[in-house]
Amino acid sequence: MLDKKKRYEKILKFTSDYISKKGYSPTLSEIAKKAGISVSSTYRYVKTLESAGLIDSGGGKKRKITLKSENVKGRAIPVPVFSEIVSTNGTNFPKENILFYIWLPASRFGEGEYFATELYEKQFIPLGCQEGDYIIFKKTSKARNGDIAMIKLEKAATIAMIKYLADGFRLTLENGKTKIQKEAEILGRAIAMQRLNI
Q: Under a CB-based contact definition with an 8 Å cutoff, are residues 189 and 143 in contact?
């Protein structure tokens, strides 16, 4: 059985994919069937997603659910939230791993490409953040000493605080563990945190 957060993500992704493919939104019944829950439970999930600012339920009218992104594309930047940053074959940012999008105000974040991932217990959690928060990264191959970065090590990516050494990097990982690396591929630098109230 899916936990609540995963169900919210599944509902968002299904709604987004459905609208992209068909040009109109799914009904509550279609969402309920996909999520494996009752229509009344689906209604509550949709209202919570609306309160979190991720969708507009359309006032209960059939096929009127819209993603908030549809109303703010000119003033906002879409940030894909990835379940995994690197695929099993080593590809960075695989489209099939996008859970949903967070839309950020362009006036605050400006030009560039961004991505996000959810923090979970067994990884580096920056000060002021907690498990379940989303860390937003700006895509870049550069970081400064002390920056929080998304680092690719072999065929996986991890969040780490980076410190440059004369002949490599010292990465601070989960629970303060450190790892010395001769080489590390920087995929992005953390620039913000988003806490979704769902």
A: yes
Rounded to whole angstroms, how far apart are CA atoms 107 and 146? 26
Q: Which two tokens stand for residue 168?
A: 């490599």
Tokens of 173: 């990982």
Instruction: Give the per-residue pLDDT at 21.
Output: 78
Q: Which of 150, 156, 158, 138 is nearest to 91 (CA)?
A: 156
Q: Is the pLDDT of residue 107 over 80?
A: no
Instruction: Please compute the mean of the pLDDT values over residues 15-42 and round it to a whole number.
Output: 84
- ∠ CA 28-84-19, nearest 5°, is 30
Contact call for residues 67 and 55 (beta carbons, < 8 A): yes
DSSP state of 27: P
Residue 75's pLDDT is 61
* Single-letter amino acid, residue 90: G
Give the pLDDT score at 188: 94
Amino acid identity of residue 166, one-letter, is A
In sequence order, what DSSP letters do the residues of 149-189 get, joined into one string? EEEEETTEEEEEEEEEETTEEEEE-GGG-EEEES--EEEEE
Is a pLDDT exceeding 50 seen at residue 145? Answer: yes
Structural tokens at position 74: 């000119």
Cα separation, 114 vs 102, in Å, equals 10
